[in-house]
Design brief:
Strand content: 15-25%
Order of helices and strands: HHEHEEEEHEHHE
Strand order of the largest sheet: 5-4-3-2-6
Largest sheet: 5 strands, antiparallel
Helix content: 25-40%
Number of strands: 7
Distance between the termini: 34 Å
CATH class: Alpha Beta
CATH architecture: Roll
Structural class: alpha+beta
Radius of gyration: 15 Å
Shape: globular
Length: 161
């Protein structure tokens, strides 16, 4: 596991007064709603954090970093895992809440955030990279069976008919 994965997963799972991502995105039924993609079985904060860890570690997860000081959300690491339609946003400022959710518009959400960030980052070219957290923070990646396919979360997506 990447050295930063656990820290990020805990940050997403926390429930600060500003934004309780678990309450807003899991308890509301977002992860169990097939309208958002394959259902992901999450019934506790621990399972939510486990799913975030899995998304960050997946080689299929695309990511980029926004650097702008124009708006807080533009100073963040963005991750998107298309097979589960899970977006993870981690602001650089640790006092700002991180979140994980399933965007209604799927990968278009990730692409639009990158386009928005690029519009204010004219001095550098932003690039979406595959490899999750390893793409933004390179370090040796430990291979595991779940990483080899990119679809076997501990909270595996289940399709409902």
């Amino acid at each position: 596991m990447h050295s930063k994965t656990e820290e990020v997963a805990r940050r997403v799972g926390q429930h600060p007064s500003k934004h309780d991502a678990y309450e807003q995105h899991v308890e509301s039924g977002e992860f169990s709603n097939p309208d958002y993609g394959p259902t992901v079985a999450i019934s506790s904060r621990e399972e939510y954090e486990a799913h975030v860890r899995w998304v960050l570690e997946s080689p299929d997860t695309r990511s980029f970093t926004a650097y702008s000081t124009a708006m807080t959300w533009r100073q963040a690491h963005f991750y998107y895992h298309e097979p589960t339609n899970t977006a993870v946003i981690v602001p650089k400022d640790p006092s700002q809440p991180a979140t994980a959710f399933r965007p209604k518009i799927g990968k278009t959400y990730f692409e639009e955030r990158m386009k928005d960030a690029q519009a204010v980052e004219t001095s550098i070219m932003l690039e979406a990279r595959r490899g999750g957290i390893y793409a933004l923070y390179p370090e040796p990646m430990a291979e595991s069976p779940s990483q080899s396919t990119g679809t076997e979360s501990p909270n595996a997506p289940t399709r409902t008919s």
